UniProtKB/TrEMBL annotation:
Alphabetized InterPro entries for the sequence: Cys_Synth/Cystath_Beta-Synth (IPR050214), TrpB-like_PALP (IPR001926), TrpB-like_PALP_sf (IPR036052)
Taxonomic lineage: Bacteria, Pseudomonadati, Pseudomonadota, Gammaproteobacteria, Lysobacterales
Keyword DNA repair annotated: no
UniProt keywords, alphabetically: Pyridoxal phosphate
Pathway: Amino-acid biosynthesis; L-cysteine biosynthesis; L-cysteine from L-serine: step 2/2
Name of the protein in question: cysteine synthase
Length: 360
């Protein structure tokens, strides 16, 4: 869009939009930090930050709020403008929800393999889904459409690490540490998260340093994902060595928001283990969470086993990234898994043993 002088009416709309976002934040409660003690890991306490409990069902609720705020405060988003972004689904659901709240139209450019439940959720919010072959660069396509037609490109992958206020403002790191304050080990040994945009790991890593804590950040990554290969080689040109069925993480390339310097370790997890992890979480917590929550669970157990082997105790915090209902027709459908040659039984048996779950 050309730079045009902002009118008094434009500024009034902007103030109204910012007030609407502030009201939404005030109506929304913080997400729960669930504690789990496992007999196999004495003295080690596990905590799961339930990001599925946001109004739009995933941790992308925080990101979408930040991206809209960032676009508005940078003078890039105006009344009546169409908003667009590239997404594997969860971000688009949250962005579509915020667009509707602000009275704006929203377009999501997403891979055609995205879970049908997510596509339905986006359309139900009145947004448009542009499905592209998964080999195509959805971000480039969203950027081109925005430039050609004067849309506002929210650019989650380009802006996630800077749109979030990493010093505080109830970002996820500040929220976790406040909720840990009265626990036996308030300073976690590890905080485990996935990397999609890289925004969460960047915020956690920066905030822990800012607060002068010794806690470490571990990224739980699908085997061969670009965060893992890039973090190990220090090379930003790294690409994924294998695709993954886990949505939201395991990117094909090193995204602009992947800040390797603030991540202390990366644990790679096979898809069968991640999916079994999601199934095990349902048995453990009584609710369904998505594949990336399973990836995190498996990485937590690996870090806990290391602590136990070193004779250490302490707390490990991780994230439940999104609701499992979105994957009813994919990760939680035995026929879908069989058709793709994914066998969960060995992974699930091992996880149940570690978690002390008796097979139902
Ligand atoms: C985006 C996403 C992640 C990763 O978070 P980032 O902050 O984008 O790195 C993990 N799990 C799910 C379900 C996601 O949608």
């Amino acid at each position: 869009m050309n730079a045009v002088a902002e009118t008094a009416a434009d500024r009034r709309w902007l103030h109204g939009a910012l007030a609407t976002l502030e009201q939404e934040a005030a109506r929304s409660a913080d997400t729960h930090l669930l504690r789990v003690d496992l007999p196999a890991f004495p003295g080690i306490r596990f905590y799961f930050k339930d990001e599925a409990s946001h109004p739009t069902g995933s941790l992308k609720h925080r990101l979408a709020r930040s991206l809209f705020l960032y676009a508005l405060c940078n003078g890039r988003l105006h009344e009546g403008q169409i908003v667009i972004d590239a997404s594997s689904g969860s971000t688009a659901i949250s962005e579509a929800w915020f667009a509707r709240l602000l009275g704006l139209r929203f377009k999501a450019v997403m891979p055609d393999c995205t879970a049908p439940g997510k596509i339905r959720a986006i359309r139900a919010l009145g947004a448009e889904c542009v499905l592209v072959p998964s080999a195509m660069d959805a971000s480039a396509m969203a950027r081109e459409l925005a430039t050609a037609r004067g849309l506002c490109y929210l650019d989650q992958f380009g802006l996630a690490e800077r749109a979030t206020d990493w010093r505080g403002n109830n970002n996820i790191a500040e929220s976790i540490l406040a909720q840990m304050a009265r626990e036996p080990d308030p300073e976690p040994a590890w905080i485990v998260c996935g990397a999609g945009t890289g925004g969460t790991s960047a915020t956690l890593g920066r905030y822990l340093r800012y607060r002068r804590l010794d806690s470490r950040v571990c990224v739980a990554e699908p085997t061969g994902g670009a965060f893992a290969t890039g973090w190990r080689s220090g090379c930003r040109d790294a690409v994924a060595l294998a695709p993954t069925r886990v949505e939201g993480i395991g990117r094909r390339r090193v995204e602009p928001g992947f800040l390797f310097d603030v991540v202390d370790d990366v644990v790679e997890v096979d898809d069968a283990d991640s999916i079994a992890g999601a199934w095990a979480l349902e048995e453990l917590l009584g609710r369904r969470y998505g594949g990336s929550s399973g990836t995190n669970l498996v990485a937590c157990l690996e870090l806990a086993a290391r602590l136990r082997a070193q004779g250490r105790t302490g707390s490990i915090v991780s994230l439940l990234g999104d609701r499992g209902e979105r994957y009813a027709e994919t990760l939680f459908d035995p026929d879908w898994l069989t058709a793709r040659g994914i066998c969960l039984a060995p992974s699930l048996a091992r996880l149940r043993a570690q978690l002390g779950i008796v097979a139902p």
